[in-house]
Fold Alpha-amylase.
Amino acid sequence: FELMLNDIVKCQSISISPPNENIVVNNPSRPWWERYQPISYKICTRSGNENEFRDMVTRCNNVGVRIYVDAVINHMCGEGGGAGTSSTCGSYFNAGNREFPAVPYSGWDFNDGKCKTSSGGIESYNDAYQVRDCRLVGLLDLALEKDYVRTQIANYLNNLIDIGVAGFRLDASKHMWPGDIKAVLDKLHNLNTKWFPGGSRPFIFQEVIDLGGEAITSSEYFGNGRVTEFKYGAKLGTVIRRWNGEKMAYLKNWGEGWGFMPSDRALVFVDNHDNQRGHGAGGSSILTFWDARLYKMAVGFMLAHPYGFTRVMSSYRWPRYFVNGQDVNDWIGPPNNNGVIKEVTINPDTTCGNDWVCEHRWRQIRNMVIFRNVVDGQPFQNWWDNGSNQVAFGRGNKGFIVFNNDDWSLSTTLQTGLPGGTYCDVISGDKINGNCTGIKVYVSSDGKAQFSISNSAEDPFIAIHADSKL
Ligand code: QV4
Ligand code: CA
């Protein structure tokens, strides 16, 4: 667990990989997805041990950065995981016998008897019982209806809460009954009062992939907390790529108007660790760092727009290799030396080394995170579009953003809603010591400003806000 405090003071929180002991998979060699196959609830993985985890959480909390843990509580390892101590902390397990003595779990604690399919796995997503009581890709499905199982999980999550984490991503929530999730949440402690006001509850977001057309819908989970809105990245990617006749002008009613869940329930993102490599609803429209120019526009749009609770991805590069449109290297884990995860080094130009992409450090993305914080709570207004892919909108009198995703240049005068003055565009540059290293925008006293954006600009969008005023 090594985060760069220089970076994270600009963010408000970090969502991390599962920190509990997982199976070690050697064929293929240490895939990233081994971390979604728990062996115990000991904090002990390739990212570090419990002491290292405590150190990270403490240092982050001390500078106001919250940590959210990816909680894999629907299942343990795969049914074919074998027996032995091939686990990140050396704990013994026997997948065939359903034995996980380091928790401990035994055969009684799994859904083998409850699942009604002949294979024991999920065979149809049109049947809510299968989706929740049977094995997801062979992963041993925990009997969350049992108080004993709920208690083991709550003990694990409470250990994390006491250490200082602020909340959880509940992995594979679609595969758990909402009532079972609630029963676990009801057992959780309040957040640690060393850093949080008394009575604070953990922030919960549930991973439910609901693109429509299945037995289970996101809305069943609203009572437990936020829910991932997977339509968001799929649709935004389609629009920014201009596929299926989509255009940015149609984004005028982005949000609930597009059939998304209510804004105050939604956790949104352009891509995540699954769909950036073709896993979990990873349609080809999803934008990632591999399509950097379009990706920055998509993330910029997301961070400027008031809909949802936003999350920015931070990735590593891997050698993509497509065979028949499928990346056969979609399993490759983080940059490593013989299995030991490589350090995140920082280059002189502030980017990351060792194949860490660090999208969160890209100027355009970092500055749009600041934009979002500056315009927080301000209304969406002053929308403009050219009927095609040139659009603009403001957030009250605090921020304004203009996009040109057409094949011709943009040149127009727009009402920004901002007080008169000279502003620094935070996409092409930064405001440093009162000067602007990028494009300057002159807003007149009536709030209007002239914008010019070439369609061949490195980044064909401009963003200004109250704190970028010179
Ligand atoms: C294999 C066969 C199965 C067989 C099984 C028998 O494919 O047919 O039944 O062996 O043991 C890995 C392998 C997968 C393997 C499985 C079990 O890829 O081939 O099954 O392990 O050994 C991640 C990866 C999965 C990976 C899993 C566990 O994406 O590929 O499976 O980790 O290592 C749905 C869900 C959604 C889910 C999404 C991916 O609704 O909840 O699929 N997303 C989350 C996480 C995701 C994670 C899981 C859930 C599971 O975001 O990263 O899956 O925790 O949409
Ligand atoms: Ca389940």
Summary: Residues 33-34, 36-37, 72, 78-80, 121, 136-139, 171-172, 174, 207, 209, 274, 279-281 surround QV4 (ligand 1) (CB under 6 Å).
